[in-house]
Amino acid sequence: GAVVSQHPSRVICKSGTSVKIECRSLDFQATTMFWYRQFPKQSLMLMATSNEGSKATYEQGVEKDKFLINHASLTLSTLTVTSAHPEDSSFYICSARLLTSGLTGELFFGEGSRLTVL
Amino acid sequence: AQTVTQSQPEMSVQEAETVTLSCTYDTSESNYYLFWYKQPPSRQMILVIRQEAYKQQNATENRFSVNFQKAAKSFSLKISDSQLGDTAMYFCAFMKRAGNTGKLIFGQGTTLQVKP
Predict the structure, then answer these.
(1) How many CA atoms lie within 13 A of A97 on its CB side?
(2) Which residue from B minimizes the CA distance to A102?
(3) Distance, CA of B25 to CA of B19 (rounded, Å)
(4) pLDDT mean values, one per 10 residues, chain B (116 residues)
(5) Is the preceding peptide bond at B41 cis, omega within 30 degrees of 0?
(6) Does A67 reach chain B within 8 Å, measured CB to CB?
(7) How far is the first Cα of chain A from the last one, in angstroms, to the nearest whole number?
(8) CA–CA gap between residue A87 and residue A76 (Å, rounded)
């Protein structure tokens, strides 16, 4: 199956700093990638939809200036948590969509990135 | 707006036995996909099974099968011959086909513990 890789898998940063998380589709081109946030023992909440070459579409309640998303190529999307604070600590997961996913609906998920803000 | 509800926060089953996880959803769409995803302790999301709403036949994947009741908007997952490796959090998810956005809406999740 298609592989999606996230990096870093774990990151610890100081409050006020910015952190970048990368999501790469390793063996396919993804026109659309999605970013989710997951708190412990809770569900995945969609934060934004990232389309290659255009601005991301954010879900209601998600701060665009806090969570910067860039989808510069068909294989890479990045999420930057700016001026991170302890409440931003969470597990962030990306998923990617094949060009043919319109027929199957299937998405492929990265391994997730755990952010801890001290 | 679509919603997905999993009413069982936690379940347990003895190894080799069968367990059913419940999921209901609400939508006005007529054409959509339904999914069950597994999230083991590694946190990697794994697709377990997929159902297309226009197909009446219930999907099956080896030990995993679904009971899809479109009129009742119910989509339960049955795991047969449970194995220790099935221990994970299971999420039911909905994706509408109209607009082809690819957005997944997840239920709250059910934590399944398979006991030896």
Answers:
(1) 22
(2) B100
(3) 20
(4) 94 98 96 95 93 93 96 97 97 88 92 97
(5) no
(6) no
(7) 37
(8) 26
